[in-house]
Every structure is written in structure tokens, then in C-alpha cells.
Amino acid sequence: MIQVGIVGGTGYTGAELLRLLSDHEQVRIRVITSRTEAGKPLSGLYPNLRRHIDIAFSEPDIKVLSECDTVFFATPNGTAMTMARELLDAGTKIIDLAADFRMKDIEDWRKWYDMDHACPDLAASAVYGLPEINREEIKTAQLVANPGCYPTAVQLGFMPLVENGLVDTGSLIADCKSGVSGAGRAVNADMLFCEVVDSLKAYAVQGHRHLPEITQGLTEATDDIIGLTFVPHLTPMIRGIHATLYARAKGDITDLQSVYENRYADEPFVDVLSSGSHPDTRSVRSSNMCRIAVHQPPGGNMIIVLSVIDNLVKGAAGQAIQNFNLMSGLPEATGIAQAALLP
Amino acid sequence: MIQVGIVGGTGYTGAELLRLLSDHEQVRIRVITSRTEAGKPLSGLYPNLRRHIDIAFSEPDIKVLSECDTVFFATPNGTAMTMARELLDAGTKIIDLAADFRMKDIEDWRKWYDMDHACPDLAASAVYGLPEINREEIKTAQLVANPGCYPTAVQLGFMPLVENGLVDTGSLIADCKSGVSGAGRAVNADMLFCEVVDSLKAYAVQGHRHLPEITQGLTEATDDIIGLTFVPHLTPMIRGIHATLYARAKGDITDLQSVYENRYADEPFVDVLSSGSHPDTRSVRSSNMCRIAVHQPPGGNMIIVLSVIDNLVKGAAGQAIQNFNLMSGLPEATGIAQAALLP
Amino acid sequence: MIQVGIVGGTGYTGAELLRLLSDHEQVRIRVITSRTEAGKPLSGLYPNLRRHIDIAFSEPDIKVLSECDTVFFATPNGTAMTMARELLDAGTKIIDLAADFRMKDIEDWRKWYDMDHACPDLAASAVYGLPEINREEIKTAQLVANPGCYPTAVQLGFMPLVENGLVDTGSLIADCKSGVSGAGRAVNADMLFCEVVDSLKAYAVQGHRHLPEITQGLTEATDDIIGLTFVPHLTPMIRGIHATLYARAKGDITDLQSVYENRYADEPFVDVLSSGSHPDTRSVRSSNMCRIAVHQPPGGNMIIVLSVIDNLVKGAAGQAIQNFNLMSGLPEATGIAQAALLP
Amino acid sequence: MIQVGIVGGTGYTGAELLRLLSDHEQVRIRVITSRTEAGKPLSGLYPNLRRHIDIAFSEPDIKVLSECDTVFFATPNGTAMTMARELLDAGTKIIDLAADFRMKDIEDWRKWYDMDHACPDLAASAVYGLPEINREEIKTAQLVANPGCYPTAVQLGFMPLVENGLVDTGSLIADCKSGVSGAGRAVNADMLFCEVVDSLKAYAVQGHRHLPEITQGLTEATDDIIGLTFVPHLTPMIRGIHATLYARAKGDITDLQSVYENRYADEPFVDVLSSGSHPDTRSVRSSNMCRIAVHQPPGGNMIIVLSVIDNLVKGAAGQAIQNFNLMSGLPEATGIAQAALLP
To answer: Exactly one of A68, A119, A149, A290 is catalytic; which is it?
Structure first.
């Protein structure tokens, strides 16, 4: 069994990680830390885990954590970077579900996250954990930066177009709709039931932290300049991201559908739907699958890609386990192969 | 009191019309017709109207309807056109909440609605009932085509840009999110609670009937060619449309905010929010207001307009009453001035 | 115009009061106080009121408030009692939407609300504002205690049985289901969207503050001892209370339906549905109506009463205005006669 | 591998059965029948199963079905009884998720289900599949009647009280709240999103088919007469049943909590929460667990039991698999041991 530690298990991402790991046949959860909940049983916060994980939160302790084979950080931004070096030095592998190691341009990171970076060298060497792009690097990585939820849905949706030079990369648009769990479990009046239910709004139209992360990823796939407009929306559902992507075809594209089917033919967690489909987010709820449909409406050169994921699974905890499996030499789908919950 | 008839009062649009008219001080509802519900009290279908409107559904009868001053059609597409001429000849005014008289290009109408038109001449003379564009024509109209829900939100959002020649009209994008009531009350397995709740999807990406209606409206406001990509989405809320609109600025626009504020300064039902705002659909729930915010994110020439309405009010029944008030010489806001319900 | 002040307008009850009063033809809202929001425009918190009420929150100021004809307290428990005497002395009428003046037994109040009472004499003289019970006293009252939401639904449901001595009052059960807005707008992790949506739970089974309030009301209607079991539940809807009431018939009751119809025949805001009906909470959403159905299933002596209200309207702000109208000599339904919003 | 057939896989119960069986390590799904969908791939109706179960619906065929080791019926009431004898004769085991074999009193069954029974003798010999009551009989059964959703939650909640003679069994009350999926996937205007969301109502107060099923079960556990009032409610959530149970204690009960803990100490799928708890339905969403809390509020002899299940899992498909495991000699929790999905 692989010994696993989780730092910061109180948020939804941590809870989802625990739910999935509790069913992972090769994992023993050794420690779950939380400064605020130390000493309390997990099931107080997460009654669904009662009788599934019999463990209490504990204070974060580098020594205990460094005895784990792998440590997941499900912490706020800025935490993993303060503990990473010590753990790596002890030979422990790290998967950070926050943003500390996602961006290579540290200056840019500092601007968007409004703090100094504790270890720019580690950010430089970290592997961006999107298996569909970086599978081989992930297999040998010590430190993996798990992608953000929007960046996962958007990059998987745009990638076949960008990699193949099929569209004008200077005028990409990602209109994204997210469920409320993407905002985490922090107590925020704006996320009260009565504030968000039966309503919908855009937010952060002037700039969202996932914009530079997506741009970085797409830029690595092409020699062209990436110009991306990204507008996230908050929608009254628990889980799910629906990315509606717009790109202008450079010329005639004879078989757009095949471009997508070929790109993802061997991917266990990307499902290209048949032509004309409209994936709904519930088709991936609680699952690690990303479902994609691609459209080219008549009378124009606009390509529209619909890409859906569960923000807590393929957009966070599920993808982290996918990375963990790769890093641990396990079959990639171990513990994350379940079908989505529907209805 | 103005005598009013309603044809087809069983859908959500009809119910909303009844709710609003029941509180309209200048209206007497004389007749509500429904072939399927004839003889049954209104409150069977709509328990909220119990003790508010004491009337039963009746069979449609041209004679009774022609004794009304104004008849609203809240019917499926293709019904109003079969009864319009007789009513108009009798001097009765008509407001059609369906699509029979919205499009001037009858050939195009035939294609999108897949039926022949019973009276192309009436379609030609009908006034498109968007008061913010056609207020004066509406005042003297006998036959008003009430706009679709998406077209209302999208046209109000794009109009200041298009009228003033500020953007490239050939590459407009309208990414729209609608509540479920927009689909009507027809029994459709896809609209069951368990099928749409906690989920989100795009639909009709290959083409939606509201596309030519929007294009027609925008074309009338400019000499330039309109090229519009329109993608509607179904979202798990009852009411509300959120239109997220994308347009490329032609050049530097020094005061975008003022363009919007000036355009709608005297409008009772268009509220331009302060710069940087993100309107949520609940801020207009049950009200006839359209709230708009306009953004120009740094580092590009993209203008993003956020436009929200209640699809059943400003997108249907409320706008119909706004038109009715104008046609009847009443103050424009009579009966539709209430604040939105929140929470 | 009647000059009105509102103390504590930041919660959902205050917002609903403002929404309804903004449409009340005899009211001028003179002042809205909030310590935390003083100086900020109302529409910041409540975007639905933008362009409807053009006023900012201000610091509570007894002098300004005492210039009002009537002051509504939409404050937490324990606030109104500290300001009431001064306002009453100045001739200002008070309607308290919190619990300060609801209970006559001050010792009991102290126990349930865990604080001392600042003015037990005022609590003794205050009129309990349930118009269906106390209409005449309300008309001449200076200080009205507006009932709680559960107590309104439960008392209206049980009253005809208790008043007429038809049931065993020692074994009453009220199983109540409430929408989330009943918990107010206070920031509480338990009321986050992701915590309450798509779920249901009972709470406060060991004892809820509304239990003694209901017991007091029922006790006044009978010489018998009241024994009540009250279990509230939190349900994933915004508004609405559904009280399911169980009582054992003492003997054969020949026409239960008539008992209810007769009791409420002249009530503008109690609607007794026809025999066999099942009211849904949406049939009263946003309206001041209470709808009641009464059942006696075959094969037993159990009477089941179904009583629904909108907790923010008949359960709070709407009933406060109903009381205000009575206290001000206005027609009882002024400003609160609208039909429910459906869908 | 055990060869399994499913008759009627188009409803939510069938879909849930498929989802769970697709992850069951000892099962090979051999055939899924549906008259209406024959020939179509499963993933057309259930996009979540795409890439998980690669099979199409087929016409029901006794010959194919009788080659299976076990056949699950996820059909409307009245179907399984027409095919059961032939399958049993062929040595195939049957688990019926509908009501054909749940009741022993055929006369009563006929009355409640309004049809004649095709094989009363099989109904007589069928084993009622509630493992917590009938585990040993289930192990050797050929024909198992899987309990209804309400009966599962209610019987598990009441059983310790009734078995131990602790309460007046003549005055039991079960006030139950169900998610919408309990109504199935049949196209019914009353189950449209806009009809049930943000609302709550009781239904079938005059009598529901699950009443005699519950009464039968409780009667078998005691010599006393069972008198039960059962009121189901429809609530705006997808999954979940919350049973709030009321029973009068016969005398002083010194340790109610222990009664429950002892009764269910060895049960893998009944979790007795600590004293004072309030289980929420989401704590069992998608899981086969039943969580129970028991209360005795001060000042009376009323015992209140809170019992929650997922109606599609422990209330249907999960319990069917639990029975299947027992009938097949497999560990009881095989394939149904997952933690609930939260949030």
C-alpha cells in the first residue's frame, strides 16, 4: 500500500480527494491535517465519510508528512510552497491542488496571486499535471502542479485546434459556466443558498487567475500568439464546468470531428461525443471524464467546442489521483473509473 | 376599463400574463381561451391565481374575442396568424407573444418555423414590439409582434454598439443562458426536474430560431453586415436570461460606459449598471427590467456586455403589457413597475 | 402619506419589507437604518431595489425614527426592546418582526432566548399580530409583535380544530418544512449553497424557540392543555413553509371541511382549498396568502392539516404590513394583494 | 462471473442498477431489455454510462433471460409477475424492484394496485428483501421482492421500537419527504422542473401504496396492532428520503440510544448516529447507507426517529444488489460500499 498524506482536508477539494481515495485499493491514508479542525473526526465536517475513513484531523507536522510516499496539498494558494522543499528533500512526492506551482512566469504569478513566491526554482521544475499533455513527464515527476478546473476544461477543449494550427489563436473566447462548489467551502455571504440559487451571473470579467494559466498552456502548444478572452459565470448547480469555446477557423477544415477523435483516441478520460452532440454537465458528475463535442454552424467560420467536466473530479481531486497513479506506476484509472452519478 | 382577451392561457407565458394583468388597474380580463382546458377554472392549472382571477378557460370564439379591445396570443407558433385578420378587421388590437409576426422575410420565416405563413401581408405590416427601438410605431400599431426572450436581451445589449458603429458587426457572439421556463410548460421528458436540475448544457448550436430574429433587428440599426454566432444554454433555474455578448471594438472607444448610459437614459426598463458590475438574473426576477453592464478587459479590443432579463417578463408577458400600455395610451409602466423578487 | 422607518433593513425580512413597501401607495419610507451598512445605498445589498427605492442606509437615530408614524424592526432578537419605550413615548407605533414582544411569559422568554428582557411591561401590553385571531386589538395597538413564520402557519392550521374543541389538544404534532431564507442572511457555513441544496434535514428536534410561541397561541384558544411536538426541517427551496399537522379527533366530526371554510370565510389571506387538495408552497410564493387543506384519511381518527405560507411574506414582512394597514386604518390588503409568482 | 439480466432498464431505478453493476467485480451484464428502446445504445438515454457499459437495449426474450443466473426487474408494477414462473422454472433467480411480490395479502394488493395478480402462489413464497430483517431467508431465496423506498426508511427507523415493544404501535406517524427521482422518469407534467423546483407539497394523504407494505412489515415484528399514519411529501431534490417518525413511549425508556445501537451493531448499511444528531439526506446520496438518529424531546413521551436513505440506492437498486450479493454467496457489500457523494 502507498502511504498518503493530505494537507488541508477541510475544503470541498479535500473532501472529494478523501472520498475517492477511500475507495482506492492501493492507498492507505495516513494523515489528514487541518489547523482549524485538528483533533476532530473527519465525519464531523463530512458525514458522508462516516464509517468509510476512521481518522481525525491533525496538526500539520512535516515529520509525519515526510514519512508518506505522496502528499496531496488541498490548501489555499501559498501554503504548499512553504512546505514543499522539505518534503521533496525527504523523498516524498507532492501533488499540489492549489496554484503555487502552476505558472512558470513567477513575475506573472506574483501579480495574479498577489504574494511573493517562496520557491521559484521549484515552480520552474514542477510538472503541470494535465496528463493529456504531459503524461510522460508526470510519470517521473516529484512535484506536480495539478491544473485549475477552468484550465482543464478549456485546454482540453481548445488543444486539438491549437496544436494543429487550425484556428486564429489571437481571438479565442472561453465562456465558462461553473457550479458553486468551485468557490470552495469558505464562508462567504455571496455563496449562501439564497444568494446563488435560481440565479446566474458572470464574475471577474476584468480578469481571472485562470486566464494566465490557460494562456501558458495553449502557448506551449503552438508558435502562434495566444489571445484569449475568458469570462467565468457562477451557476446554480453543485458541480460541473461547461466551457463554451469559440475559435475562428483559418481555412476550410474538412473533418473537424476526426481531429478531435484522433487526438483523444487513447485517452481514458476524454470522451469525444458524436457530431452534433450537446454534453450536459451531469453526464460527468462525480466522474473523472471530460466530454467534448465540436460544432461548426453553417454560414460562417466559427468553431464552437463544448467541453464539460466535474470541477471537483477531473477539475481537481480526480485529476490529482490520475497524476498520483501515473507517478506511482499504477494503472492510470485506478480508483477513478466510476461512471457518473445520474440523475 | 380596457377589455382584454387572452388566447392560449395554459403555458407559462400565459400564466405570467394573467398574473400581471390581474394587478393592472386599467384592465378587465374578459376571456381566456384554451381548447384543452375549456370549462375548467384557471386555478386548477395555476393555483397562485386562485382568489385573484375568477374565470374559467373557454373555447376560442372569434366573436367573443372581437368584442375585446385587445387580444393577447400566448399560443404556440402558427396560431395567431390564423385568427389575426378577422380580429383586426373587427377593430381589435393584437399582441402576439409567439413568433408569427416577428420576421419580415417570410421565406426565411418559413424555413426556420417549418410552416407556411397564413398572412404574409400582416407580417409585413406588424410592428416589432421592442419599445426601446420602436416606441413610436408601437403607439399607433394594430398588430404587434412581441419579441422573443433571447432577442430582447441580446438586442438591448448590442444595440448601443451597433447603432454607433463602434464594433465589427461581422463577428458578434451571443453566449446566452436561459432558465427552464423558457422551454414552456409542454410535457417533455427533457424538462423533467431530474433531467435538468444540477446540470447545464448548450443546445441548438447548429441553429436556433431566435438567430434570424436577432440578426434582423441588428441589421435595421446599421448599414453594416451582421454576422452573429448565437449559442443558447439551458441552466437549472426557473426564470432568467443572461446574455454574455462579445464584440470587437473597431478602434479606441473613450467612454463606453457613457455610450450605454446615454442610449438608455430615458428608458424606464433598461438599467445600465455602474462600470465593473456583474448583474445577476435574480436582480430582475419577476420584474420587467433589463439590467446591463459593459466591460472592456485590459489587453485587447474585446467588449463584453452582460444583459439580464426575466424571460417571462421583459422577455414575454411584461414586454407585452409594456406594448399594450403604449398602444392603449396608458403610462408605459402601468402594472409592470414592481421591483424584482429577491431572494 | 404615512411616514415609515425601518430599523435593520439588511436581512431578508428587511429586504422583503422594502420590496413590498416600495409598492405601497400610502407609504413614504423615510429612513432605513443599519449600523454595518450606514452610508451605503440600499441597492448595493439588494440590486432588485435599484431604481425602486432611492435611499441609503443610515445609523439608527431615535430622533429621526420618532418622527416616523410607524417604525418596523427587522432586527435580530433583543434590539427592538431597547428602543421601544422611547419611540412609543414619542407617539410612534411599532411593529417588531423579531421575537422581543411575542411571549407573555417573560420567564419562559428569558429561557428560550437566553437574555434578560429590557421591558417586560411592554411585552405584557404588546398585541400579538396575527390578524386572524387579534384583528380588533391590532387596530388600536401601539406596539405589535409580529408572529414567527412557523407559528403563523401552525396556528392558522390548528386553530379551527382547537377553538372548536374537536381534537385531543394534548397530542398535537407539527412537522414543518421551511425554505432556507427562514434562516436569514447571516453568514453561516451551514447555509452555503453546497451545504443545503439537494438535501433535507430536521433541526432543533430537542426544542425550537417557536414551540412556546405556538403553544401560547393555541392555549389562548382553549381551556384544554396544549401538548405539542414540533419538528422543523430545512429544505432546499428559497421561500415557503409547509406545515403538516396531526391531531386526533375526539369523536366523529361530520363536516370537517365546513369547520375550516366557516372559520376563514371572511379572511382575505386564508384560503381553504377544496376537500382532498394538497397545497404546494409555490402557490403562495411572494404572496401574503396562507392556503390550507384538511384531510381525514380512512380507517382512523387522525386529522391531517396542510398549511402553506411564504415565510418572508405571511410569515414576516407581508403580515407586518397587514398589521400596519390595520393599525393605520387602511384597507387590510393595501400593498399586499398581489398573486403569487408561479413558476 | 455471474450472468445478470435486467428487464426494463430505462427508468431511474434501472439506470442506477446499471451504474452500480457496471462497477461490480463479480457481475457480467448480459442483457438489458426495453420494448420502447430496443436496438438503441444505453448511452443515448444515460450519457453517464457511455464508455462504461457497451450494450444496447434489446426486446425482452424469456430464453435469453433464462440463461442468466439472476434477473432484475426494474419494470412498472405488474410486469415481473407475468414472467417470473418461467424464469424460476429455468433456475434463474429473480429480484423484483417493483411491487409485484411485496405483499402477502393478495386481496389487499389487488385493491391498492388495482389489478389482478398473475401468480399469488409466488407472492406467497417470495422473500421480502430487507436484509436487516430477513437476511437468512434472502440467502436461499429464488425470488426476492425488493422493498419500496419509503418502506425501507420507515421500517428501519421504527423496527427497534416495535420489536422491543417500547411504543404504542397503534398511533405511529411517518411524515416522509422524498426527492423527485422517486417518481421515476415517466413523462408527467407534474414533474417538470418548473413545477417542482423551489416548492414542496404533500401528496396521497388519503392513502399511498407504501402504507400497507409498511404495516405488513411492522406487523410481523410484533403481536400488537399496527396503526400507522403515513404522509409522503415531494421535495425539490433529486435523491433522498427523510422519514420523520413519531411514536409514543409506553413507559420510561432508560437508554433509547442503546436500543438502536445494539439493534444495528452488526449491520453494514445502517448507521446509528450519536445522540442529538440530525442526519441530512446528502450524507447518504449515492450510497447504500441508512443513517438514523433517535430523539426524545423533554417534557413528553414522544419519540422522534430521523431516518435517511437514498431512494435510488438503499431504497431501490443498492438494496437489490445487497440482496443479490446475499443470494449469490458474495460478501454483502460487494459493489455497494462507496461513500456518499458530498457535496
So the answer is: A149
